[in-house]
From TrEMBL:
Domain of life: Bacteria
Protein's recorded name: HTH araC/xylS-type domain-containing protein
SMART domains tied to this protein: HTH_ARAC
HTH araC/xylS-type domain segment(s): 188-287
GO molecular function (one): DNA-binding transcription factor activity
Gene3D superfamilies given in the database record: Homeodomain-like (1.10.10.60)
């Protein structure tokens, strides 16, 4: 079906580490998210792909180097650890100026358009997430080894991929702006202090002093412009950092708890479980994320 979209000769490919086609069941195509094909390339100049239209979506994870994109009137690049999502029904162009390595998947599904549109409106086509990066590698492994009856697993991983990025984008958006106005300098200073010092003990009174406001007025202003109380904002930010450490390092739960500023590991586990519908940090790490 899609062979006509794959160039027979692609100049600039230094190494093709695998191009894997996946044949989803008719059931999967009717109700699940599913993958057409994926691969891993190492490329250099003059590698270039231009497409006017293809009825699928594509996701990239850059593993080394930098890949360049021209999409929806915008030009940008993605470097190691960054993910890019494109709707291939729109004109798209991606290319290399120097050596780069990346994995990619072409995929679709009944809910993908809504997922994609939501994610793009929140944060555009480019993202960074240690959890999402690991999910991309999992999806690549699933189509690489093609074990029996894995349509549902693939669908769930794609669902988890978009869910993680959408939730992260929502948090970042609430961290930056209010619905009606730009965040005042004194509130922005408090936010930046939290981002740099979340591993330390932080109390609202100290943040209010930093903003040169009374505790009461500071708390009201902070919630007005972020949508969260100072305490909830701090704990949410700590939780995001903890999740990234759980999937990107081998640090113990106790070490992550301390590094992210929680009072003790028991409090961290309780807060984490409450925030993830009962999933403990150890179970979260053990999931196929």
């Amino acid at each position: 079906m899609f062979n006509s979209y794959i160039p027979k000769n692609e100049p600039g490919i230094v190494k093709n580490s695998g191009l894997f086609f996946y044949e989803s069941s008719e059931l999967a195509k009717s109700i699940y998210n599913y993958i057409y094909w994926g691969g891993q390339y190492t490329v250099t100049y003059p590698y270039c792909v231009k497409r006017d239209y293809m009825n699928s979506f594509i996701a990239f994870i850059i593993m080394e180097g930098e890949l360049f994109f021209d999409y929806l009137g915008k030009q940008f690049s993605a470097k190691k650890g960054e993910l890019v999502f494109l709707d291939c029904k729109e004109k798209n162009h991606y290319y290399a100026k120097d050596t780069a390595t990346f994995q990619f998947i072409h995929f679709s599904g009944s809910s993908i358009q809504s997922y994609y549109d939501t994610l793009y409106k929140l944060h555009g086509p480019k993202h960074t997430s240690a959890i999402a990066e690991k999910i991309m590698h999992t999806l690549y492994s699933l189509i690489q080894y093609q074990e029996k009856d894995q349509d549902f697993s693939i669908s769930m991983e794609i669902h988890r991929l978009f869910g993680e990025l959408i939730e992260q984008a929502k948090d970042k958006q609430s961290f930056r702006y209010s619905p009606t106005a730009r965040i005042p300098t004194e509130i922005q200073q408090a936010i930046e202090y939290i981002h740099h010092s979340y591993s330390q003990t932080i109390v609202v009174n100290d943040l209010a002093k930093l903003a040169n406001l009374s505790t009461y007025h500071f708390s009201r202003q902070f919630k007005k412009f972020t949508g969260k109380s100072p305490y909830n904002y701090l704990q949410t930010y700590r939780l995001i950092q903890a999740k990234n450490l759980l999937v990107s390092t081998n640090l113990s739960v106790e070490a992550i708890s301390e590094q992210c500023g929680f009072n003790n590991s028991s409090h961290f586990i309780k807060f984490f479980s409450k925030s993830t519908d009962g999933i403990t940090p150890k179970k979260f790490r053990a999931l196929k994320l």
